[in-house]
Amino acid sequence: MRKVLFASFESLPFVKTGGLADVVYALPKAIDKDKYEVKVCLPLLKVIKDKYYDSLTYLDSIEVHSGYINEDANIYSYNNEGIEYLFIENDSLFYRDGVYGYDDDVCRFSLFNVAILEMMIKLNYYPDICHEHDYHTAILPALCKARYCGIEKIRNIKHILTIHNLVYQGEYNRQVLFDLLAFDYKYYENGDLRFNDYCNFMKIGITFADKVTTVSKSYAEEIQTPGHGDNLESILQYRSQDLCGIVNGIDCTQFDPSTDKNIFKNYSIKNVFKVKPENKKSLQYNLGLNEEPDTMLIGMVSRLTFQKGADIFLGAIQEMLRHNVQIAILGTGESFYEESFKALERENKGRFVYYCGYNEALAHKMYAGLDMLLMPSLFEPCGISQLIAMRYGTLPLVRETGGLKDTVEPFNEYTMTGRGFSFKDYSSGDLLKVFDYAYVQYYEYHDRWDKIIKNAMEYDVSFAKSAKEYEALYDEVVTE
User: Fold this and answer.
1) 3-state SS of the chain: helix, strand, coil percent to 5?
2) CA distance 398 to 280
3) Domains 2-249+464-479 and 272-458 share a fold
4) What does DSSP assign to residue 411?
5) Long-range pairs, 68-74, Cβ under 8 A, ≥24
6) Rounded CA gap, 9 and 42, in Å?
7) Hey, is 74 helix, strand or coil?
8) Over the chain, what is the mean pLDDT?
9) Rounded to whole angstroms, how far apart are CA atoms 349 and 111?
10) pLDDT score of 327 more than 90
11) Which fold has domain 272-458?
């Protein structure tokens, strides 16, 4: 049985700031447990410690000496749904109200990465594969191959780095490499650890990992281009033979309209056309919208940022509201969008509502009650909302980018295939064109609309297929 260690700064059910936590939670559960022993290593953050500390099992203590870092740390274990989670405890760096955004984040990330290796030594636990997630743990392959390379069991570990969002790279002053990570200067001189005279965790991870993955096939192609490579496209092109895209799934036990306790009334594909309208009517009532179950209800569950297409959506809303529709938005983000949506709500009471904040239970109710979910993203490595929406029979309208392109097949009225609607050019005009088309299907072709709902709900959005692709990658990297 091969041993796989996931290294991440966040994971459900313990802590979440974005889709990374969903993946690190769901993927290990989907991996074949007869072939792989999967463990997950996380920092013991305040939000975790406050809730779970009494349930953790103490394993051992370690000393972390790395440049100017001289810290003690404790190792704890916790079993959740058949997966062992290993936690690194250091209150001075991890016991804080937030997850990210501190001036000493680079010190926190550095300690965590080095502590993982010290944990391996102390516990005599050496995985065959380390699966690192995003830049927070991307320095781990270099530590194994350039600093701890004198220990054969660490040197022989294979590394897979998964890029969840290339925008976030972890770029710091080059002194971090020596002052906090204690690398030999020769690795900076030869360029392995250098990127434009800086320390860039993501670049280092891409350079040292045995394989690099990202969360959709289209995004793997996009990040090798100047438009989406965020200055790392040349490095990714160089590693193109070792780069692949594996689309995310979702945890289908957490997101299941037949058992979801957050929605108003449970349903499945067998009774979706009878029960889903009841969820819609209840959602309209709870949001203060006019209770008009036949009116098309569209919405967004998203961060309100340029990346998520908030600008082109805002540019299209007035035209959308000239149609017989209602619009509901859930999320926070840049103040300009928040204030604009608040003003639209004041001007369109009963037809437009904006919930400024994030509410997990309300998000589930929207997935169950909306007719259509908008995701007009500028770029989207994978996206999870469209997968949840399809599972709940809510049709996604997306821009053809990254994982949105890979998972939302646009409706074809001639073959009656497709799971939603999509447009190519990043513009309010193109968004409106496909909205108009979807609007016609909803009001004039009920049989078509129902068929798209069935197509969407029948689509496999689980991690089962993705897990098989990761397993094949694990086998490949170990046998190379």
Assistant:
1) 40, 20, 35
2) 21
3) yes
4) P
5) 68/179, 68/180, 69/107, 69/110, 69/111, 69/114, 69/180, 71/111, 73/111, 73/115, 73/118, 74/44
6) 6
7) strand
8) 96
9) 51
10) yes
11) Rossmann fold (3.40.50)
